[in-house]
Amino acid sequence: MRKEQISSRLSAHEPRLLNLENNRHGAVAMILRPGEDGEEVLFIERTRVDSDPWSGQMAFPGGIVEADDPDARGAAERETLEEVGIDLTAATYMGRLDDVQGRHRAHRSGIVVSGFVYFDSNRQRTVPNYEVADIVWEPLATFMDSGRFAYAKYPPAPDERFPGVRVGRRDHQIVWGLTRRFLMSFFQILGQPFLVDAEYVQSIPTESD
């Protein structure tokens, strides 16, 4: 699906916004650009830091909405510039995804994350900061390929496995959790198949099968 079709679908979508009461508020940017094999989407691999509960995970650029941010979208744009050096005010804003509710063991309160989609026709050069270990541009077609399914492991829950999608060049680069849920929402809005979904996951043999 090309830029014009994506823009049309997103502009017609009425995003589901969640109640922020008793929740922290985060914001992320889903950044698309033209690629050789169709549109690509940007992911960051977060630098591994012992004190960071999201250390080492694949994600969209973003972070917590601060008091001096104009709004959640402004926070996503600020965090993106800080983390990867892309100026989203020079990109095309395409629309907002449904909010995603999350919770982390390190916090008693939950978190509501808002997602905003941009198209960077100029293919701006990325400049990762200290929070980013790697940057991956992945074709959207990857998420329509059931062969890219993978389980992710999360150190605080060593006995659990989480469904995800393998991206990038390294085995540990798996998109899962909140970021995967944003992707599923994105593909649902587009009316396109996201083959690495819950129904597909149920059909994957486990190690004990």
List keywords for this structure.
alpha+beta, Nucleoside Triphosphate Pyrophosphohydrolase, 4 helices, globular, disordered C terminus
Explain what this protein looks like in three dimensions.
With 209 residues, the protein is α+β, with helices and mostly antiparallel strands. Helices cover 20% and strands 33% of the residues. The chain has helices spanning 3-12, 72-84, 177-190, 198-202, and strands at residues 23-33, 40-46, 58-59, 62-64, 92-96, 100-103, 110-119, 132-139, 149-154, 157-166, 174-176. Strands 1, 2, 3, 4, 5, 6, 7 and 8 form an eight-stranded mixed sheet that branches. Strands 9-10-11 form a three-stranded antiparallel sheet. The protein is globular.
Secondary structure topology:
Elements lengths: L2 H10 L10 E11 L6 E7 L11 E2 L2 E3 L7 H13 L7 E5 L3 E4 L6 E10 L12 E8 L9 E6 L2 E10 L7 E3 H14 L7 H5 L7
Parallel strand pairs: 1-7
Antiparallel strand pairs: 1-2, 1-4, 2-3, 2-8, 5-7, 6-7, 9-10, 10-11
**Approximately what portion of the residues adopt beta-strand conformation?**
25-35%
Distance between the termini: 37 Å
| Morphology | globular
Low confidence ranges: 203-209
- Quote the CATH topology of the domain at 3-50 and 57-140: Nucleoside Triphosphate Pyrophosphohydrolase
| Helicity, as a percent range | 10-25%
Rg (C-alpha, Å): 16 Å
The CATH class of the domain at 3-50 and 57-140 turns out to be Alpha Beta
Major β-sheet, in short?
A: 8 strands, mixed
Order of helices and strands: HEEEEHEEEEEEEHH
Give the number of helices.
4
- Count of DSSP strands: 11
Q: What would CATH call the architecture of the domain at 3-50 and 57-140?
A: Alpha-Beta Complex
Relevant CATH superfamily of the domain at 3-50 and 57-140? Nucleoside Triphosphate Pyrophosphohydrolase
Mean pLDDT, as a whole number?
A: 89
Helix-strand category:
alpha+beta
